[in-house]
Amino acid sequence: MASTSDIKNGFTFRHNHDIYSVVEFQHVKPGKGAAFVRTKIKSLSTGRVLSETFPSGHKVEEVRVERHKMQYLYKDEMGFHFMNAESYEQATIQEAMIDNAGFMREGDTIEVLYNTEDNVPLTVDLPQYVEMEVTYTEPGVKGDTATNTLKPATIETGAEVRVPLFVNTGDKIKIDTRSGSYQSRV
Questions:
Q1: How far apart are CA 55 and CA 30, in angstroms?
Q2: May I ask the CATH architecture of the domain 129-185?
Q3: In terms of DSSP bridges, do strands 160-164 and 150-155 run parallel, antiparallel, or are they unpaired?
Q4: pTM as predicted
Q5: Which residue(s) pair with 76 in the sheet?
Q6: Which of 55, 58, 72, 156 lies deepest, with the highest CB count within 10 Å?
Q7: Tens digit of each residue's pLDDT (9 = 90 or more) over 4-26
């Protein structure tokens, strides 16, 4: 058992029959009354982010987790298949557990968060930025640059991203995987 003094960013614990990871926390000592810890926690099973307040000294059940570097192999009707780069063990992960799965290419190395108690994958963390090639986009209209206009573009994985008008088919672009937004040309 851990207490609220052990809470920090990335800390994982069991709360309300689910496993949560701390996204943000703040220790608050008001002028009147007892101290407490205000947190933003993310459910590792559903991805929902909640705001939760714990009284100072509250006990929480810590969950030990490990991060494994895994290589994305392929996708089929069972889910996404990954291989551990060190032990060569394979794991199948459902699409619901992966945020922005359209930004993964076969052969890419990603991090998978495992619960060490039962060796079950909890989440898949893609790199913050990926570089992809634009396979199709409409040509930009000359002179239509008075505003920051965006157009749809299809990247090599088949996902669609909104890009500025000057991006053409065949260009390599940098994409933020958290928001799915265009960052720059490479």
A1: 12
A2: Beta Barrel (2.40)
A3: antiparallel
A4: 0.74
A5: 79
A6: 72
A7: 888 999 899 999 989 999 999 99
